[in-house]
Amino acid sequence: MRRYWLCRILLFALVMGLMCIPARAETIQQGKNLVIGNVFTLSSEILDEERPIWVYLPDGYGESRDSYPVFYLLDGDIHFHHVSGIIDILSEYSHMPKMILVAVPNVDRDRDFLPTRENGWPPVAAADKFRAFLKKELLPLIDKKYRTRPFRILCGHSNGGTFCVQTFLEDPDLFTTYIAVCPGLHWDNELLLKQAQKVLKNATFKNKFLYLTTSADDEGAIAPTMDFYVLLESNSLRGLRWHFEFMEKDDHLSAVHPTIYNALLWLHKGWRLSESTLEHMTLNEVKGHYQKLSQRYGSAVPIPEGVLFNLGFSIQGHGRIPEAIEVFQYGIQLYPDSPYCYEGLGEVYEEAGNLELARKNYETALKLAEKNNDDMILPTVRVLLEQVLKKLENKQPATKTQSTTSFM
């Protein structure tokens, strides 16, 4: 029902928008730029050069007090746009948490990513120095500059994937998750494969994740990557969750996007609880589910706001009003700067006949929606507040209402 009314509102908004299109193109005025990130420059003493850093902050970062995991992306100038889109859409639909994306554009990728020289190339191989730059300069700066959680993802493609694998083997605690897309494990007579044979033999990890792919046209890199997969499978690697995928329908370049998309879904399996699943769960059961995820990731995982929102309405729909109130109050405790659980709590109080508390929560939701420029929930809250004010004025008995907003 909530989705039905949401569709009607969106359709109405679309029609009104079309009606407002000017008849002549000459009347269209230049609007504001659409900005998805910002750039700053880090003066690196280790690398002895200026390094541009591109940053995407999740929607609502400025209005919230939350902390976020950080996704570190190599070849950042190439992949920033599509990776920020993956993160945005998967987090928007509660398949994963919102994240900060830190993209590191290239200056000299072969120098920075390759561990050694092979046949005289590259002129300088300085992967160790680049890793020191990440560890001692970039990561501490990001943690100081932004509200971060102790959950870091490193993602690299091709030579960047080679660097990713080497970092996983030599300094696994630097990141929580490693996404190595089509790494060149054939480099220097399969140097990293030989290193892995030694490292993985008696390795113990703590809450680490590795996602590894190779594509159909990776030629000389396919066999050593497959051998790396066999090493992972044949060793009992405590504390490590890993996944290997052969991208047989992709080439070396097209494999990047689906690898990252699939890796993030795999990494956050169980993050989103569907509405049908929530129909049979209590708040304590949901808390227990995310406590288990916290143990998996090695850091606290708060229940996503969308899950609490849908759980509250599910419990309300079963007539368990006190439990629904508890859910929305818990959501407000976790997300005090968001209007959604205030709106949900208002609906529950209205159904219970407590119009004054309904009014107070609608008013709070309205203020937050206006402050956050949240056009998704703003029309709904205005209508609900107007209705409850009329009821209070006329002292009419409360009637059941339904929210027109839904977390997908």
Q: How would you portray this structure in words?
A:
The chain is α/β, with parallel strands linked by helices and about 400 residues long. It has two domains: about 40-265, Alpha/Beta hydrolase fold, catalytic domain (Rossmann fold, 3-Layer(aba) Sandwich); about 275-395, Tetratricopeptide repeat domain (Serine Threonine Protein Phosphatase 5, Tetratricopeptide repeat). About 50% of the residues lie in helices and about 15% in strands. The chain has 15 helices and eight strands. It has helices at about 1-20, 75-90, 110-115, 125-145, 160-170, 185-200, 220-235, 255-265, 275-280, 285-295, 305-315, 320-335, 340-350, 355-370, 380-395, and strands at about 40-45, 50-55, 70-75, 100-105, 150-155, 175-180, 205-215, 240-245. The chain has an eight-stranded mixed β-sheet with strand order 1-2-4-3-5-6-7-8, with helices on both faces. Strand 1 and strand 2 form a beta hairpin. Helix 11 packs parallel to helix 13. It is elongated and about 85 Å long.
Shape label: elongated
Q: Predict the CATH topology of the largest domain.
A: Rossmann fold
Query: How many separate structural domains?
Result: 2
Instruction: Quickly give the structural class.
Output: alpha/beta
Name the CATH homologous superfamily of the largest domain. Answer: Alpha/Beta hydrolase fold, catalytic domain
Q: Could you tell me the radius of gyration in angstroms?
A: 25 Å
- CATH hierarchy, class of the largest domain: Alpha Beta
Distance between the termini: 13 Å
User: Which percent range describes the beta-strand content?
Assistant: 15-25%
The main β sheet shows up as: 8 strands, mixed
Instruction: Provide a count of the helices.
Output: 15
**Overall helicity:** 40-55%
Would you identify the regions where 5 or more consecutive residues have pLDDT less than 50? Answer: 1-25
